Amino acid sequence: MPYSYLKPLLEDNGSKIVLLVMDGLGDIALTPEGKTALETASTPTMDRLAHEGTLGQTIPIRYGITPGSGPAHLALFGYEPLEYVVGRGALSAAGIDLPVNRGDIAARGNLCTLDKDGKITDRRAGRISHEEAAPIISLLNEVQIPGVKVDVRQVKEYRFVIVMRGEGLEADLHDTDPQEVGVPPLKVQAAKSGSEKAAKLLTEWIEKATEAIANQPVANGFLLRGFASDPGLPSYEDAYQLQAACIAEYPMYKGVSRLVGMDVLDLVGPGPEGEFETARKYWQDYDFFFIHIKKTDSYGEDGNLDGKAHIIEEVDQALPSLLDLKPDVLMITGDHSTPAALKSHSWHPVPFLLWAPATHRTDLETTFSERNCARGGLGTFPAVETMSLALAHARRLLKFGA
Amino acid sequence: MPYSYLKPLLEDNGSKIVLLVMDGLGDIALTPEGKTALETASTPTMDRLAHEGTLGQTIPIRYGITPGSGPAHLALFGYEPLEYVVGRGALSAAGIDLPVNRGDIAARGNLCTLDKDGKITDRRAGRISHEEAAPIISLLNEVQIPGVKVDVRQVKEYRFVIVMRGEGLEADLHDTDPQEVGVPPLKVQAAKSGSEKAAKLLTEWIEKATEAIANQPVANGFLLRGFASDPGLPSYEDAYQLQAACIAEYPMYKGVSRLVGMDVLDLVGPGPEGEFETARKYWQDYDFFFIHIKKTDSYGEDGNLDGKAHIIEEVDQALPSLLDLKPDVLMITGDHSTPAALKSHSWHPVPFLLWAPATHRTDLETTFSERNCARGGLGTFPAVETMSLALAHARRLLKFGA
Which of A149, A303, B54, B267 is the most buried (most CB within 10 A)? Predict the structure, then answer.
């Protein structure tokens, strides 16, 4: 349960909270003259909100820890990420609306290519297209063995999710992906004795499934990783008395939102504008909107600072339509940093903007940037405090003690 | 174990980390016009690093807590100081390379003077010289009792360490130093029942040893404090995959470094210059260098702000030779504050400078000072996070979660 001290203080007053996450927003300037993506972007609306509201910076997991997307989002949602560990398989399955119930196990899969000796020649089968991969993944979905039910569902291109449904399946299993070519896929191995039943059944299924696609020309093998089971997270409604909605383009983020009981909304259009229009359409139906922008992270990973800055500008240009809805609390932040200079996620603190015109405390900072956020009125704080701040500024928390 | 979540993320990439500790660096300015020692000192090189890198300030133990040197250094090394409590006796013994093994107990000793009634007249025997004290301490070392082996070794001047080696000796014992004159030394008393065996043996030894030096003219008694046993700290290699070296002039700091498995290097010369030259000599042999400057603290304790500032300037002048070695991460900080205005250790946050040209995030601060560090990009953080930040900026930590 997110902070248990919140629960007795909760009061549903009908206020509206928006958490706008630009994935990997945080950036670095390696030199005093350098600029981050956020500093490069022209963001008049965010700067106005920064001037009116309060800045700060978050530590996603712990000092020095570079988070994956799953734990970084769980932290923003108020779930202590070292306590609530959700396997990638369960996240991915949730992201394509494939339920993972107690006793089931899920994993991520890649199609790959194998040579005549069964050794991997390409771990991603030449990144074949969605259309090329679809029929092969369908063949995998047809493979069944006694005692369990197996669902295999394409995610995107050569990537799929597998869910094995049964009883007493535990997910402490090692990946079959050896993370290198020139060797065969690894056997499924149980990391704990409780997982031996699952290992045995998966080994059986993998054998049969490998035969089923052995003669496919573009991808004749597959690799599994991130075995996971239902993490059993408490819901937003239970933890915060919030009816919460997720507005996101990518499966992963829909997945983690579903795990905490958010409704995932159908987008009315693409990009930030489409996402904000989606918020407008459903505005009366929810208390809390999590809006996720993916491409800031993608450009960061590519080392494309200007591309990242451009996405931030797109968000800024679309923001007035979100502000028209008059949220009581608007928070703009990232889940972690993805500095273009490092071309990867990083541990650096993440800029955080809180705007709540009826309750915020204005600080001395006037523009939204990493440098200013470091000196902002909220200080440097753990991302897992985000929901407490949101609820407080929305006046949804009663006094603690008399 | 320092943060257990670090261990599965560690990756040895051959990068080099330097932790430069100016003991008691933090200072206070009591008035708006006043300056701290760091603000008084001319430090062009540190200011350049501050401009290029990131500042912050650490809380050594907890808010408001004034640390001793032992816990302050353990925190910087990543060992939660409220969890890893190392007695001063064990630290001092380690500092002079006197092993304290499981079952042994160690304590610090002072020679003192006693009047004819056995009452203390000077707790430090007039701070007699190393040469005067040496033969008296030798006499103590000769005193043995059945069932245990006792080692007494001079540290400096009137100060010594005693280690009693045996079986089942527990160190929960009260000091014999009453911290005042005009009263006799206290009896050794067990603070817990498990320590009664040790108390009995020590009482026996103290009686015999007091007789042995009763007729010495310059010091005819002694006081013991800081009883401690082997703390069993995990090593730097185990906790961080770092081959670590200590470069320090004073026994205490060598001691605490040895307790975490650092190699203590022989200095090639005195002062900051000699210490940095020592780093150069051993640069290829280690991943991590802890370099300790003592005199900032000593001048702080003396209330000599200018003396403290002068030492900081000496360090600054020698710094270019350290930078020539091209460390991947250089951190410059103190273990705690020793404000000259207070003539003692204090609880104030400690200035922290992080310079890692390939990974740091430049902030708005341009000079290394307490005032600027309070606004720096790293925020105010527990000293125990120092190693996580070091490993991250050295790119020695993999991503947490997917």
Answer: B54
